[in-house]
Amino acid sequence: MTRAVVGLLALAYLLGVWAVLIEPQTLSVREVAVESPAWRGAPVRIGVLSDVHVGPDHMPPDRVRRIVTRLNRERPDVIVFLGDYVGGHAPAAQRSEPDRAEVMKGVAALGEARAPLGRYAVLGNHDWWFGGLLVEAALTRAGAPVLENRAVRIDRPGGSFWIAGLADMESARASPSAAAALREIPDGEPAIVLTHWPDTFPGIPDRIALTLAGHSHCGQVNLPFVGRPVLPSPGSARWPCGVYREGERQLYVTGGVGTSILPVRFRAPPEIVIVTLSAAP
Questions:
Q1: What DSSP state is assigned to residue 158?
Q2: How far apart, in whole angstroms, are the C-alpha atoms of residue 133 and residue 130?
Q3: DSSP annotation of 110
Q4: How far is the C-alpha of 218 from the C-alpha of 170, rounded, in Å?
Q5: I need a labelling partner for 186 at 20 to 30 A (CA). Which of 106, 136, 165, 205 fits?
Q6: Quick one: pLDDT at residue 11?
Q7: What is the pLDDT, as a whole number, of residue 102?
Q8: CA-to-CA distance for 278 and 166, rounded, in angstroms?
Q9: SS3 for 2?
């Protein structure tokens, strides 16, 4: 065996160790600034957390608490959770009682998040596979109301604004509907939309200052010269992660903090995001 082959095998081994054991356990804090012509009033700092995927091996409740503690240190004005709090694919009824309890403890840990303007959530596909009503109830108990095709008005000294949430594309109750979510928001009032799937972005009107989405995990694996070989939906392939602008509409897709299917991340580190949204000059 030549030295080159040995070197390549050693490199592959080290990269595998990094992707399985190290990078998935890291945590980045990403600061993002977005200016929007649809925003009015003072800037707002939004803490964004998505795709937690609670599970005993890779995202136990104690790790969720550590992530939330790190988010709290950034002192956001408002915190939003973008779905997929549950790891795995099995419904709650097919899981052991300890497994179900672990999931509920992890979701409850999100209640330790602190922001003066509150916490708001949408559900993701894994949540509905587990049991959407169970996850919704746990989030409500944790002080993070779930916005499913509805909006809430946030009042503050710097000017009120709205947060609207879309139903998940796997929801047992409703399809995602921007029209339903935005019907209570008067024209001209600033608004943010929360959605688990970036696939819903084409249906968001120009009057929305910013859409926030998760689901993509930034591909979990981002190979040099190849890119992201696996993305979970057409919208994730089109908008895998980061800030996107199409006309007057703007989207931020976060890679989230957990993993799905395989406990692997490579050049797609877990992230919490602080988005500072302000009016365009």
A1: T
A2: 9
A3: G
A4: 20
A5: 136
A6: 58
A7: 95
A8: 23
A9: coil
13 lies in a domain?
no
Q: What range does the domain containing 224 cover?
A: 27-279
**CATH number for position 225:** 3.60.21.10
Residue 59: inside a domain, yes or no?
Answer: yes
To which H or E segment does residue 164 belong? Answer: strand 161-165
Which of 240, 193, 244 is CA-nearest to residue 217?
240
Cα–Cα distance for residue pair 93/95, rounded to 1 Å: 6
pLDDT at residue 2 in the model:
79
- N- to C-terminal Cα distance for the chain? 63
Give the type of residue at 271: E
- R_g of the chain computed on alpha carbons: 19
Q: Locate tokens 């004005």: which residue?
A: 77
Q: For the residues of 26-80, what is the DSSP string, one character each?
A: --EEEEEEEEETT--SS-EEEEEE----BBTTTB-HHHHHHHHHHHHHT--SEEE
Per-10-residue mean pLDDT of the chain, 281 residues long, equals: 64 69 93 97 98 92 98 99 97 96 97 98 98 98 97 97 97 91 94 98 97 97 90 96 95 98 93 98 86
Q: In the structure encoding, which two tokens stand for residue 165, read together?
A: 């949430």
CA nearest neighbour of 52 among 115, 130, 133 = 130
Given this model, what pLDDT does residue 4 score? 63
166: Cα separation from own chain's centroid: 13
Residue 144 burial by Cβ neighbours in a 10 Å radius (0-12, 13-18, 19+): buried
Flag whether 2 is in a domain: no
Structurally, how many domains does the chain consist of?
Answer: 1
For 96, the token pair is: 């052991």
Tell whether 208 is covered by a domain.
Answer: yes
